Amino acid sequence: MEILNVNPTRMEMAKLKKRLAVARRGHKLLKDKRDELMKIFLEVVRRNKELREKVERLLTQAHQSFLVARAVMSVPVMEEALMFPKQTVELNVATANLMSVTVPKFSYATSVPRSDESDGGGDWDIFPYGLATTSSDLDASMQLLASALPLMLELAESEKTAQLLAQEIERTRRRVNALEHVLIPQLTETIRYITMKLEENERGNITRLMKVKDMMLEQTYRYRDRM
Predict the structure, then answer these.
(1) Quick check: 8 and 197 in contact, CB under 8 A?
(2) What residues does each domain of the chain span?
(3) Would 51 disulfide with which of 14, 58, 143, 155, CB 3.0-4.6 Å?
(4) Hey, which CATH number is domain 25-173, 1.10.3210.10, 3.40.50.970, 3.40.120.10, 1.10.287.3240?
(5) pTM
(6) Greatest distance between any 2 Cα atoms in the chain
(7) What does the DSSP 8-state code read for residue 99?
(8) CA angle 40, 104, 178 (to 5 degrees)
(9) pLDDT at position 139, please?
(10) How far is the C-alpha of 208 from the C-alpha of 213, rounded, in Å?
């Protein structure tokens, strides 16, 4: 492991020790964040799988009912029945913070023109046609599509959330690996190198002082011999 290019001084070693403490704390926090993100991600993926199965089942049933209705109804009658939708749907998009990840929140509201509000409302609002000239299979198809709409929005929200969580998990994983395998070992090796350098300099200073002491004692003995 390469060491950092710093001067081997006590001041630099103190700075590096502070950086090492911050890096270790950040490493622990990022690992905790990664583990929690993985837990949330797995829950979202499970929910996503359930929603996808429900939506695919409803759309398959709606498509089958629509094919049967198309077989028993003439094309002009069906086109006339579906030409003018009775309901309008307004999609609302908001955001939420999930472990520092901004995820979307979808909601919708349906509205009926005022001229049609006297029809009784409820489940009948989804049919833009009279029931006398249309097939019951077309009614079933419309009802299945209406029931699939909130699930489709929830599925879209869940899939986007899973995608954003996966990206954040990957970024967090890279940061954890960078701290664990690069920065922390690098700081540790640099501190060890500075410590060894300081100890070496300390031993050199002690050796020089001992030599100076021996030289002074030798000069003192020579001076006494001359006296």
Answers:
(1) yes
(2) 25-173
(3) 155
(4) 1.10.287.3240
(5) 0.76
(6) 140
(7) T
(8) 50
(9) 84
(10) 8
